[in-house]
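Message: Study each token:
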Amino acid sequence: MKQIINNNYLKSFKFLSWNEASTFLKNQKTLKSLSIEDTFGDNYYCYVCYHSLTGEKEFVLSFSSDESEDNLIFLYWNNLLVLHTGKNIFLIDEFLHIIVSLEITTPLIGLYLINKENLLILEETFMRVINYKGEIIKSELFDLIENFSIKDNLLSIQTSEENKIIELT
């Protein structure tokens, strides 16, 4: 199944060695390519982005990770691509420049677009709200989150020690 977002769809390729991934990348005919070198892992991923209507290659993105593909996250945020590789979250612009790389300190629960300007990054013991430039505008450390919910831009977090409500702006 093709999932089309912003008139693009991604096709994934997984390799077990850097040599295989490197050969694949060399054979791609595209002007826009980004190989993220600051990633480490036993799995080598290449994602080819195609135009949804014409099928033309838009760009190629590659990185390595110890995560299974099911745990990786791609999020289109206006003209940004937000990529979770297991250890980092990258904000990548439409020219394939990395705007910011944020290290994940505990396992990621998920990402949530608050509005057009802000993104929530929720980990098991940490939350950050970042703006479109990758600047952290709010952050907080918790005990292990046992339960959480979001309603009306309020994040409710329950830990063994406390219940906390945070306004997401």
Observations:
- The chain has two domains: 1-104, 105-169.
- The mean pLDDT is 93.
- Residues 1-104 form one domain.
